[in-house]
Design a protein that fits this description.
Layout: E1 8-11, E2 16-24, E3 27-32, E4 44-45, H1 59-70, E5 75-78, H2 84-97, E6 105-110, H3 118-127, E7 130-133
Parallel strand pairs: 5-6, 6-7
Antiparallel strand pairs: 1-2, 1-4, 2-3
């Protein structure tokens, strides 16, 4: 129910642009505004749609963060950060993955219109070690 007719859906860094014509029961019906060749594992972006109902950390993210700690990486870039709480959750997962995780830097990727306002950005920056604005998704 987060999308409505007329909304844009971008696939594979906007290589394919879709327009929502309807949605019901968790299914979104779209028409293509252009043509593109798609492969697997492509990103999907719906500008202006609030993602607050989606978890910030999926099971795959937990595995990836654990791997990053095991490899003693210096930092992680956290995608689709919406709030300072999202950064705190990532730090908690890193800390639980091992002692090195407590020392890793977390760079918050700002990829939604909801997080690009001064108050939200300030709150996120209080928790993160840096911000990266992903303007292609905005």
């Amino acid at each position: 129910d987060a999308v409505k007719p007329g909304d844009s859906v971008f696939v594979d860094d906007a290589e394919l642009e879709l327009e929502v014509v309807g949605s019901a029961g968790g299914v979104i019906e779209c028409v293509a505004r252009n043509s593109a060749t798609l492969g697997g594992k492509k990103g999907v972006n719906v500008p202006g749609v609030d993602l607050k109902e989606l978890p910030v950390i999926l099971d795959k993210d937990r595995r990836d963060l654990k791997w990053a700690v095991e490899q003693e990486l210096d930092m992680v870039f956290a995608s689709f950060i919406r709030s300072a709480q999202d950064v705190r959750e990532i730090r908690e997962v890193l800390a639980q993955a091992g002692p090195h995780g407590e020392h890793m830097l977390v760079i918050a990727k700002m990829e939604t219109q909801q997080c690009v306002n001064p108050d939200t950005m300030d709150e996120i920056l209080q928790e993160a070690d840096g911000l990266m604005v992903a303007r292609g998704d905005l």
